[in-house]
Write a structure and sequence with these properties.
It contains five helices and no strands. It is mostly helical. The protein has one domain.
Length: 148
């Protein structure tokens, strides 16, 4: 068992995926908790509750993804702002998917908002990983010229 765990730890991509799933799960918890607090405590409708839950989850996800999942280092404040801007752009894209899915599941298929939220979040977690890996927290390539 110890050897198996050491193999997993040495496989950086697998560790990244495990961390993403772990923090994605926590982000989903943040999303759900914020949603149901907004809905049940403040009696907001599902659109406003979903917006509040999305903002809470995005801020949590940026911090955890940047620091622990993708271990992204910003060389400057400007680079951090660019990275955050890309993160927000792709999260807005996934928010549109999230909101559209919630609307369709609730208004068209007449599912409960809990089931709609659960189904939507499964797809959103996968989409956000791909956006983060491919477009936001890409590893920086070191350019080497004229090495002889």
């Amino acid at each position: 068992m110890k050897g198996y765990i050491q193999k997993i730890i040495k496989n950086e991509r697998l560790v990244e995926i495990i961390l993403y799933i772990f923090f994605g799960g926590l982000t989903t918890v943040v999303n759900f908790v914020a949603y149901f607090i907004a809905r049940d405590l403040f009696h907001f409708n599902f659109v406003i509750s979903n917006t509040i839950s999305w903002i809470s989850a995005v801020l949590f996800a940026f911090i955890t993804n940047k620091i622990w999942v993708f271990k992204s280092k910003s060389e400057s404040f400007f680079e951090l702002i660019i990275e955050f801007g890309k993160f927000i752009f792709y999260r807005l894209l996934s928010f549109g998917i999230d909101m559209g899915s919630m609307f369709i599941f609730i208004k068209v298929f007449h599912l409960s908002d809990f089931i709609a939220k659960l189904l939507t979040q499964i797809f959103i977690v996968v989409s956000n990983y791909l956006f983060s890996k491919l477009f936001i927290f890409k590893s920086k390539k070191v350019k080497v010229d004229n090495i002889k």
